Each structure stands twice: as C-alpha cells, then as structure tokens.
Amino acid sequence: MTNNTMTDVATDYTATDYTATAAIDATPEIVFDALTTLHGLGSWWTSQVEGSATPGGKVTFKFGGGPNTFHVDEAQADVVRWTCELAQLDEWPGTVVEFRLSPQATGGTTLSFVHHGLTPKFVCYDECKSGWDYFLPSLRAYCETGVGMPWIAASDS
After folding, report:
1. pTM
2. What percent of the chain clears pLDDT 70, i.e. is strictly above it?
3. Contacts of 43 by beta carbon, 8 Å cutoff, 6+ apart
4. Residue spans per domain, the chain
5. Domain 17-148 is in which class?
6. Residue 64 pLDDT more than 70?
7. What are the DSSP E strand ranges found in the chain?
8. Which residues contact 13 (CB under 8 A, 6 or more apart)?
C-alpha cells in the first residue's frame, strides 16, 4: 500500500497552473470510477456532492458553504475534465480541473492532475494548494483501499 503523504505526490508550485502527479496502486478503471460517479467523488473529495458526473452534466460540491458547480467537459478512460461555473471562491469560475490517467505496467495508474488557471497570483492559491495537497492523496487512498478522507459535513457525521 502506498503512503498517503504528499511526499508520494509530486507537485509543481512554480508552474503557471497547479499540477501534481501521483502513482496509484489501482487500475485506471477504479480511478476513473472515483472521478465519474457521485459515490466515488463523495468518497474522496466531499460528502456533499450531487448532479451528474457524465459528459455534458453538471456536478455540484459543497464544503460547508455555497455550491461549487462544474460542467463535465470530458469523461473518457484517459481524461476527466471539468470547467468551474460557480464557486465559493471568486477566482475559481472559468478554471479547469483535469485528471489524466495512464496505465502502468504493474497494473496501477499514473495520475497527472492540472488545475488550469489556479496560479500563485490568486489570493486563494495557498488555501487551494493545501486543499489539493490533501484531497489528491485522499483520492489515491480511496482508489487503493476503498477508504478516502473526504470533507464531511457535520450533518453527515
């Protein structure tokens, strides 16, 4: 099993966009399901998720405040891409979240993640970077063990 610390997820904070890469000891199909089903998304990102995570759909996430709604631009075996339409943070609308999945010879998956438009010039950058630094290992943990570390609303506990 892979350790769930950021030392196992390579990040690039000096790039134009926030990027991270992680090796996940799970098949691309398992990772894809974690990114394209409400159950999967609720198991690693936030327990408050609704909508449709299929291409052309809209999926809404809550983290204790207002909604964060994304249009699902693409959901194929090797790439999942969402465009933020509405968010608690004023800087997120128009940014694009992209997950690229590549199979590994060992049966695992290489995840290449980019949050296009999330740059160090944003006031929210440090908070958002910390969030992704936490939730990407949560995604890996969920895919590898079936147990992630999502944000859980007090009403869900």
Report:
1. 0.90
2. 89
3. 34, 142, 147, 148, 150
4. 17-148
5. alpha beta
6. yes
7. 9-12, 18-24, 48-51, 58-62, 67-76, 79-86, 96-103, 109-116
8. 120, 129
